[in-house]
Amino acid sequence: MNSEDRDLILSPAADQIRDYCYELGHQLGLELECVYWGVDKEPRCPNAPYKLTVKMGPQELLWFWLTEGEIAGYITGTSIARVQERIRTELEAFLRDDLEESPVSTE
Predict the structure, then answer these.
(1) Helices 12-28, 68-76: crossing angle, 10 deg rounding
(2) pTM of the predicted model, to two decimals?
């Protein structure tokens, strides 16, 4: 990881995105173990090497691949809606899938 990448994932904008994940997870009733940033040398999306990992259990991980512009633009407001919508959509989908897999008591 180079110094520019490190500066970006340790920036106030990256902190705000991570905090949003924690807050939204709490609102949805999810217990997030940790949320952390990384940089992938060979990302799935070549233009989005910044990976936000959301850990919800030993085997339950979600990844959000973001571009430099999405992270940097978060603090200026240019990418807030897009980034938050993507995170919300994935966390809500995870919650739905988790609820569908849980046995329902009929007592």
Answers:
(1) 80
(2) 0.86
